[in-house]
Amino acid sequence: MQEEINAVPVQPSERISELDILRGIALFGILMVNMSFFNYPIFFERYPSNFPEGMEQFWAYMIQFIFTGKFYAIFSFLFGLGFYIFMKRAISKGTNPVLLYKRRLRALLFFGLIHLVIFWSGDILFTYALGGFLLLRFYHLPLPALKKWIIGFFLMALAINSLFTLFQGLGEMVGGAEYEAVTLRMMEEAMVVYTEGSFVELLLYRVVNEVPYIFISLVASIPAVFGYFLCGLYAGRLDIFSNLAKHELLFKKILARALPPGLLLMVLHGLIEREIVAVSTLWRSTWLWALNYGASICLFSSYIALVLLVLRSVPGRKLLAPLAAAGRMALSNYLAQTLICIFLFNGYGIGLYGQVSISRGILLTGAIYLLQVFWSNAWLKYFRYGPMEWLWRTITYGKRQPIRI
Questions:
Q1: What is the residue-wise DSSP string for 199-249?
Q2: Interhelix angle for 71-92 vs 281-310, to 10°?
Q3: Res 4: pLDDT
Q4: Residue 220 to residue 162: CA distance in whole angstroms
Q5: How far apart are the C-alpha atoms of 329 and 390, rounded to whole Å?
Q6: pTM of the model
């Protein structure tokens, strides 16, 4: 017999505004990277050198250098930290935290599956939900052991993803012109379906050609995010976010120690990608993935530390405060980004697929994000939660939640 859940969700007054601001910033970074995934086939290699030389290539490098891999890392860190806060508050309210969190994850798994299959193959919610079930096993782990597991999962992610990219390099090296021709045919087919196909035709194409690839890649993508989950859990266990002023020196140390190696790794990434540093075809993809992942581990923590230091000043808090509303509605905004972009790019919408340059994609990202910040602030004047957050809470707690203020 299932235990009855007698708990209520976190109220707006209980939220940590700094975390909401970080979520809001992460949403912007994720959309910046995802913009090209909405605009090009998943088979397209998004190395900056594949874009036209000049300003287009420059902007592609800027996105690679500053955004790619870094903001989904922040989002993943916040997922792990949110898990700790959720469990701690559930325990304090005298309810079964594991039962409650599993219900929460099952709802997220359902949202992610619908998003992945019906709307867009770049979904991350499904991966997060699967990783979340594993996260439950780490809640009570001693801190020294947790630190070892963080290192272990980062190394595991490097090993598994290096193996995947090594197979890619092997295909390129052995297949040669034939490998390139097959990839080109897949891209051309995707371009036709995405620009001319109806909703149903595109759905069938995605189910056959993209979703199986995403499911297979879960073997690599779950370990890649799980290290960040554990970093968030570790930060929660250290109770850093309950008194940010007390940890100002820690944030400065993180920035000083993590930023330089992160930038150095991205410079090396650029040198290899530009073929200034020669690497064989077999190992090129592996080196590029490993360098970006290593840089992301350093830079995501640097970005978080920098934002938290900026928020210590009055002008900084004033500047970033509006982003908290977007962060409070992160799930709604993440899914809204998909709906907006598939309407803009897919053939059954406006049909801009494959036609938007990198520079215009950046402008489009800024416009969509500003619209979401404005909409989120307006919405939260009248409602406690975003629409998807309300639905998620209603499913989690097993009863209709009040939404109006």
A1: HHHHHHHHHHHTHHHHHHHHHHHHHHHHHHHHHHHHHHHTTGGG-TGGGHH
A2: 50
A3: 43
A4: 9
A5: 10
A6: 0.93
- Of the candidates 130, 125, 26, 105, which has an alpha carbon nearest to the alpha carbon of residue 392? 105
CA–CA gap between residue 310 and residue 15 (Å, rounded): 19
Is 14 in contact with 108 (CB distance < 8 Å)?
no
User: C-alpha distances in angstroms, 34 versus 67, 148, 162, 194, 353?
Assistant: 10, 32, 22, 16, 13
Report pLDDT digits (tens) over 218-232: 999 999 999 999 999
Residue 82 CA: distances (Å) to CA of 151, 180, 230, 324: 20, 43, 11, 15
Nearest CA-CA partner of 186 in 35, 42, 355, 347: 42
Q: What is the pLDDT of residue 86?
A: 93
Dmax over CA atoms of the chain, in Å, equals 65
Spell out the residues 6+ positions from residue 267 whose beta carbon is closer than 8 angstroms to its own. none
Mean pLDDT of 367-390: 97
Neighbour tally for 25: CB within 10 Å? 21
Identify the three-state secondary structure at position 383. strand
pLDDT for res 1:
31
- Residue 56 backbone dihedrals phi, psi, to 5 degrees: -60, -45
- As given in the structure block, the two tokens for residue 140 are 């009570």
Q: What's the confidence (pLDDT) of residue 3? A: 42
Alpha-carbon torsion 171, 177, 180, 185, what sign?
A: negative
Give the phi and the psi of residue 46 in degrees, each rounded to 5.
-90, 35
Q: Report which of residues 294 and 96 the model is more confident about.
A: 294
3-state SS assignment for residue 50: helix
The overall average pLDDT reported for the chain is 92
- Kindly state the average pLDDT of the residues 151-172: 90
Q: Are 96 and 5 in contact (CB under 8 A)?
A: yes
User: Do 134 and 226 contact (CB within 8 A), yes or no?
Assistant: yes
